[in-house]
Amino acid sequence: MQHLVDTNDLSDKQIEAILADAFAFKHKNPPPFLENKIMVNLFFEDSTRTRTSFEIAAKRLGMGVINLNPSSSSTNKGETLEDTFANISAMDPDCVVIRHKDNNVARNLSAMNLSRVLNAGAGNYAHPTQALLDYMTLVEHFGDIRGKTIAIVGDIISSRVASSAIRLLRRMGMNILLVGPKAFLPPISFVGDALPQYKKLEDVIDKVDAIMSLRAQIERHEKPVFKDYSHYGHKYCITQEVLKGRNILIMHPGPVMRNIDISDEVLQDSRCKVLTQVTNGLYMRMAILKNLILDS
Ligand code: ASP
User: Fold this and answer.
1) Which domain holds residue 90?
2) How far apart are CA 148 and CA 209, in angstroms?
3) pTM
């Protein structure tokens, strides 16, 4: 039984096959490969895109989808998460998609090996399907991404999108620069070797092919980092004045804090791929479901 907790769970060959399927599905919707299969969504943290995307992906492939609401499930009556998972698994779903604020929950449940676990966001540790859809978006635009440079801008230390992207995009040969105020930059030991860190967007703007802007993960901060995020926005918002005519791809996993992360104007610009990422996420999740449930 293959789980997807982190992109490192996938071999290069699997990533290649998943990417090829995602592009093929984007070109032409596939037949319902997963008819009669069941997916259970178990989201302990808020989600708009990821949960809907998993659900539509599953339905496009013919799966039945059960959305369990943790606030009305038995974890709320004192049942342990492991017992809830064991009980769901006893009904033999084909996968359980889980999002949790704890970095280790998805990994621990996958180790029980009772149901296939797909991680839809684990604390600040991993968001593998986001990394894969970001990878797809970059490959779709650049073709070969080896040697290209991406700046990740914002709350890197608290972001699972950043940590997953760093692991996957480095593996795929990209150069990664980290940009943000000190409080948002990780300690050097964060993900293996040190990555170059910058305090100012101006210092990287002429070095990059792509920018991944990130939202401040306010829900993960023990105490407020900034009282007023417009001050942060003055320095780190991706605006037309910052970009000028440069040919730089702009990405963001959403939700976007308008005019703090990315300006209204840049969100409308053809260099901005935020909605393309969402579209690609659907095909990428279809490809992941097919590969993990049918092919491995
Ligand atoms: N949607 C992404 C996540 O779940 C990014 C964010 O919330 O800022 O991590």
Assistant:
1) 7-126+281-294
2) 6
3) 0.96
pLDDT tens figures, 195-220: 999 999 999 999 999 999 999 999 99
Which residue from 127, 156, 257, 260 has its CB within 8 A of the most atoms of ligand 1, so it is best to mutate? 127
For residues 101 and 137, state if they share a domain: no
Q: Which residues contact 108 (CB under 8 A, 6 or more apart)?
A: 82
Rounded distance from Cα 254 to ligand 1 centre (Å): 6
User: Are 162 and 54 in a shared domain?
Assistant: no
Rounded mean pLDDT of 235-260?
A: 98
Instruction: Assess contact for 293 and 94: CB atoms under 8 A.
Output: yes
Residue of 66, 21, 28 lying closest to 294 (CA atoms): 21
Atom 8 (ligand 1) nearest CA:
215
What are the tens digits of pLDDT across the range 47-105? 999 999 999 999 999 999 999 988 777 777 789 999 999 999 999 999 999 999 999 99
User: How far is Cα 293 from Cα 118, in angstroms, rounded to an integer?
Assistant: 11
Give me the number of domains the chain comprises: 2
> Which atom of ligand 1 lies at the shortest distance from residue 159's CA?
9
Does residue 18 belong to any structural domain of this protein?
A: yes
Would you say residue 109 has pLDDT above 70? yes
Ligand 1 mean position, distance from CA 199 (Å): 22
Mean pLDDT on 240-264: 98
Cα–Cα nearest to 284, from 100, 15, 39, 41 = 15
Residue 223 counted as domain residue: yes
In a domain, 225, yes or no: yes
Tell me, in angstroms, the distance from the centre of ligand 1 to residue 167's CA: 17
